[in-house]
C-alpha cells in the first residue's frame, strides 16, 4: 500500500495525517489545471505515505530521468567543446588546414564564440516548445539535429564554414540544459534538488572528460579514407550523438502529469509532494504579464551573474586546457590525455557538495562559496601567476575544474528552491543558463591566442576578478534571503506569493 493502513480513506485522498500542530490541507491529487492553491506547504512533505513506497517510487524516477538527461548533456558538452581538442590533434593540423591562425589569431576565438550567440538568444523561447511538444520529443529531436551538424563540421573546407556550423550547433543545443534543469525541478521537492541537479550535471561533465581520450584515439585515424584525424573526431562523435538522440526519444520521461511509466498511485505521490513542498505542481502557462514580472525579478539576474562567472572558468578550461597543458611543457599527446583525470576528479567534490547542500540546513550558499574559493585557488595555481612547478600547476587544474563544475549546478538548484510557479521555473532556468552562454563568449574573447605563450594572462586575471566578486554576490544574497525570511516570520511580507514559503539558505 502507498499509505499507512491506519489512515482513513478520506485522509488518504487528502494526503495527510492527524498531527498535533495545525497544518494546511493540500489540494486533491485530481488537479484540474487551475492556479495552485495557497497555504499548502507542509513541514513534512511525506506525511501519510509509506516510506518504502516513497523510496521505490523516487528510485524509479531517478533511474528513468537522471541517466538519460546526463547522457544527453554529456554528448552536448563533448560536441560543443571538442573544437579545442580537434585543433590540437595531429600537431595542429586542423589549425593549419582551415587557416585558423589568420586574422591576428582571432579566427579560432570567433569559431568558438559564435556558438553562444544563438545559444543565448534561443534559451528562453526553447522552453515554450518543451511544454507544448513534450520533453522527449523536443529534446530528442534537437539532439539528433545537432548530431547531424556535428558530422557536417567534420567536412568544413574553411574556417568560415566551421564558424557557420558552430552557430547552427548553438541553435539546437539551446534546448537541452535549460530544459533538463526545468524538468528535474518539476519532479523533485526542494530538499532533493541539489543532489539530482548536481548528479545530472557532473555525470555529464565527468563522462565528457573522456571525450579527450576518445578524440585522441580518433585522431589516430588521420589519413584514413582521405580524411584528416580532426575530421574523424567530428564525424564519429556526431554519429554517436544521433544515436543518443534516438534513444532519448524512446526512453526519456516527460513531466509528472504526463508520466506513463508510473502507476496512478505513484504519480499522485510525486505531484502531492511537490504541491506540499511549494504549491506549484499545477502547470501555469507563461503570459506576457508574467514574462515582464519575471524580467524584473532581481534575484534571478543575480543567480544568472553567479552562473556566468563560473562558466567563464569552465568554458575556458574546456576550450583551452589542451593548449594550457602544452604551454606547461607537456607533449602534444599528453596535453590531450591529461585533460581526462581532472574531469573524473570533479565528480567527488560535486556530489559531496550537493549532498551537504540538501541535507544540512543553511548550507546551500556556503557550499557554493567553498567551491568558488577552490576555483580561485586552482586558477592561481595552474596559471603562470603562481610561478610553480609543472606538478603543482597541474594540481591547480584539478582544483579549478572541480570547483567550477561543482558550484554551477548548485547555483541552478539554489535558484529553483527560491521560486514558485512552473512558468517561472522555465524562465529562470533559461535566463540563468543563457548567462552561462555569455560566460562562454567572455572566455572565448578573454583567452586570446596571441597570449597563449604567456599563459593567457587577460583571461586568468578576469576569471579571478569575476569569481572574487562572485563570492561577495553569494554572501549578499544569503543575507538578503535571511532578512526576507525574518520579515515573513513576522508577517511583514509574503515571499513568492505564499505565506508559508521560506528561502533555503
UniProtKB/TrEMBL annotation:
Recorded superkingdom: Eukaryota
Transmembrane found in the keyword field: yes
Pfam family, one: MFS_1
Keyword Nucleotide-binding: no
Transmembrane domains' residue ranges: 108-125, 137-155, 167-188, 200-218, 230-253, 300-321, 333-356, 368-385, 391-414, 426-447, 459-480
Topology of the protein relative to the lipid bilayer: Multi-pass membrane protein
Location in the cell: Membrane
Primary residence: membrane
Residues covered by the Major facilitator superfamily (MFS) profile domain: 65-485
Biased composition (Basic and acidic residues): 9-24
Region (Disordered): 1-36
UniProt keyword terms in alphabetical order: Membrane, Transmembrane, Transmembrane helix, Transport
Name of the protein: Major facilitator superfamily (MFS) profile domain-containing protein
Originating organism: Vanrija albida
Amino acid at each position: 500500500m502507498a499509505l499507512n493502513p491506519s489512515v482513513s480513506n478520506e485522509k488518504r485522498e487528502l494526503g495527510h495525517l492527524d498531527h498535533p500542530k495545525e497544518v494546511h490541507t493540500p489540494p486533491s491529487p485530481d488537479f484540474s489545471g487551475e492556479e495552485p492553491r495557497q497555504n499548502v506547504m507542509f513541514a513534512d512533505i511525506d506525511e501519510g505515505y509509506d516510506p518504502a513506497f516513497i523510496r521505490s517510487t523516487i528510485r524509479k524516477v531517478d533511474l528513468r530521468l537522471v541517466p538519460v538527461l546526463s547522457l544527453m548533456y554529456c554528448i552536448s558538452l563533448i560536441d560543443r567543446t571538442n573544437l579545442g581538442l580537434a585543433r590540437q590533434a595531429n600537431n595542429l593540423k586542423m589549425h593549419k588546414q582551415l587557416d585558423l591562425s589568420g586574422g591576428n589569431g582571432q579566427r579560432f576565438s570567433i569559431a568558438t564564440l559564435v556558438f553562444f550567440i544563438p545559444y543565448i538568444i534561443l534559451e528562453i523561447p526553447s522552453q515554450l516548445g518543451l511544454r507544448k511538444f513534450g520533453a522527449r520529443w523536443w529534446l530528442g529531436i534537437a539532439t539528433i539535429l545537432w548530431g547531424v551538424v556535428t558530422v557536417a563540421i567534420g567536412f568544413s573546407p574553411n574556417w568560415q564554414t566551421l564558424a557557420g556550423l558552430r552557430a547552427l550547433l548553438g541553435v539546437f543545443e539551446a534546448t537541452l540544459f535549460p530544459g533538463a534543469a526545468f524538468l528535474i525541478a518539476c519532479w523533485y521537492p526542494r530538499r532533493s534538488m541539489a543532489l539530482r541537479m548536481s548528479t545530472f550535471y557532473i555525470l555529464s561533465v565527468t563522462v565528457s572528460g573522456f571525450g579527450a581520450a576518445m578524440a585522441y584515439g580518433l585522431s589516430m585515424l588521420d589519413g584514413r579514407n582521405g580524411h584528416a584525424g580532426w575530421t574523424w573526431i567530428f564525424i564519429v562523435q556526431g554519429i554517436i550523438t544521433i544515436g543518443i538522440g534516438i534513444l532519448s526519444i524512446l526512453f526519456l520521461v516527460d513531466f509528472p502529469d504526463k508520466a506513463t511509466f508510473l502507476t496512478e498511485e505513484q504519480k499522485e505521490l510525486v505531484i502531492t509532494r511537490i504541491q506540499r513542498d511549494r504549491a506549484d505542481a499545477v502547470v501555469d502557462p507563461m503570459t506576457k504579464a508574467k514574462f515582464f514580472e519575471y524580467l524584473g525579478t532581481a534575484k534571478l539576474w543575480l543567480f544568472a551573474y553567479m552562473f556566468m562567472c563560473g562558466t567563464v572558468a569552465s568554458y575556458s578550461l574546456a576550450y583551452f586546457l589542451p593548449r594550457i597543458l602544452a604551454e606547461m611543457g607537456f607533449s602534444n599527446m599528453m596535453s590531450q590525455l591529461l585533460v581526462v583525470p581532472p574531469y573524473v576528479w570533479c565528480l567527488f567534490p560535486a556530489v559531496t557538495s550537493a549532498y551537504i547542500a540538501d541535507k544540512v540546513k543553511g548550507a546551500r550558499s556556503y557550499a557554493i562559496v567553498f567551491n568558488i574559493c577552490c576555483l580561485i585557488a586552482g586558477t592561481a595555481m595552474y596559471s603562470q601567476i603562481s610561478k610553480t612547478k609543472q606538478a603543482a600547476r597541474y594540481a591547480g587544474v584539478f582544483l579549478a575544474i572541480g570547483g567550477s563544475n561543482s558550484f554551477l549546478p548548485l547555483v541552478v538548484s539554489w535558484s529553483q528552491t527560491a521560486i514558485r510557479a512552473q512558468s517561472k521555473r522555465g524562465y529562470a532556468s533559461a535566463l540563468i543558463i543563457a548567462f552561462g552562454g555569455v560566460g562562454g563568449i567572455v572566455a572565448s574573447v578573454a583567452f586570446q591566442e596571441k597570449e597563449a605563450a604567456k599563459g593567457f594572462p587577460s583571461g586568468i586575471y578576469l576569471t579571478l576578478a569575476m569569481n572574487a566578486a562572485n563570492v561577495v554576490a553569494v554572501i549578499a544574497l544569503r543575507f538578503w534571503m535571511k532578512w526576507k525570511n525574518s520579515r515573513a516570520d513576522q508577517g511583514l511580507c509574503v515571499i513568492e506569493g505564499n505565506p508559508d514559503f521560506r528561502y533555503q539558505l
